[in-house]
Amino acid sequence: MTHPNAASRPTQAVVLAGGQGSRLRPYTDDRPKPMVEIPGTGTPIIGHQLAWLAEEGVTDVVISCGHLADVLQTWLKSSDLPVNVTTAVETEPLGRGGGLKFAAAHLPHPDRPWYATNGDIWTRFSLRDMADFHTERDAVATLALARPRIPWGAVKTDGFGHITDFIEAPPSTFEINAGVYVFSPEFAGLLPERGDHERTTFPHLARERRLAGFPIPQGAYWRAIDTAKDLTEAAKELAALGRA
């Protein structure tokens, strides 16, 4: 039996791959951040993302490029891809919101919903469930929410100032924007031509109660690959999960 929301699940997506990746140097000296490989996997981050999107029913992907776009385009041409890929190359930096708007203009079905993901996110969870959540809340935009592990050990104290426990790398008490989204068709029209949508479009939608937050299910893998340490940690975690 077909799920009642199946028709409203996106089949198109944007991957934001235009950033400089300066905190990942020297890995990003000769390639854009999404082309960096997790040690031991043999797959760049973007390869993993395209496979994940295909598994979740996506057929068409627009990759927003900027920094070292030709390296990414060469890899795409030489790879056996599970989806149809178009690249949208920014000739000048448009900011996150502007880049998203520019890429959205290249989607094959502007009148249908779409997914988007930051190009440095390594994750696996059900985008179909997230799309259903988005539809049920009549949202214009839905953000995936993660609880990242704090990189330091934490302490617990009692009311008298005595330390009662040490907790190694606890999950954050706050949920953060996980860099994965579901957008309704009208969202692209609300984006700035240049600048950051997280300071303009998102707060505006939040005030209107049209912005939803989908908690990534407990136990699902999520990590933003931002620094060399993240690469090492991800390699360890993926090996432990048996996914590497």
TrEMBL record:
Residues 13-239 form the Nucleotidyl transferase domain. Pfam families: NTP_transferase (PF00483). InterPro entries: Mannose-1P_guanyltransferase, NTP_transferase_dom, Nucleotide-diphossugar_trans. PANTHER family: SUGAR-1-PHOSPHATE GUANYL TRANSFERASE. This is NDP-sugar synthase. It comes from Streptomyces anandii.
